[in-house]
Amino acid sequence: MRLYKTKRWERKRAAVLRRDEYLCRECKRYGKTTQATTVHHIYPLEQYPEWKWATWNMLSLCDACHNKMHDRDNGALTALGQSWVDRISPPP
Ligand SMILES: [Zn+2]
Ligand SMILES: [Zn+2]
Question: Which numbered ligand comes closest to the C-alpha of 75?
């Protein structure tokens, strides 16, 4: 995915990590504090390119949790990934 190589993404990613205080939001649900290393698109880029730059659509995660959001084989959302889609709605 080319997006992840751009300067604009680099800045956006840094802003999202800062917003989430550099902690994994999935681990946080279980009271764990784990350093976030990845910014995930809740509504996947491929299906929702209009929300590519929407900060509300982004989630700071650790690598382990990010791996749990996507199916290893096809990159599609897992049930856990889908649960975030269900939890987060686009702002009005
Ligand atoms: Zn985590
Ligand atoms: Zn992701």
Answer: 2
* Element counts in the chain: helices (H) and strands (E): 4, 2
Which residues hold their Cβ within 5 A of ligand 2, which is an ion? 40
Give the residue extent of every domain in the chain.
2-84
SS3 call for 85: helix
Q: What token pair was written down for 14?
A: 């840094």
Per-residue pLDDT tens digits for 16-55:
999 999 999 999 999 999 999 999 999 999 999 999 999 9
Cα 44 to chain centroid, rounded: 9
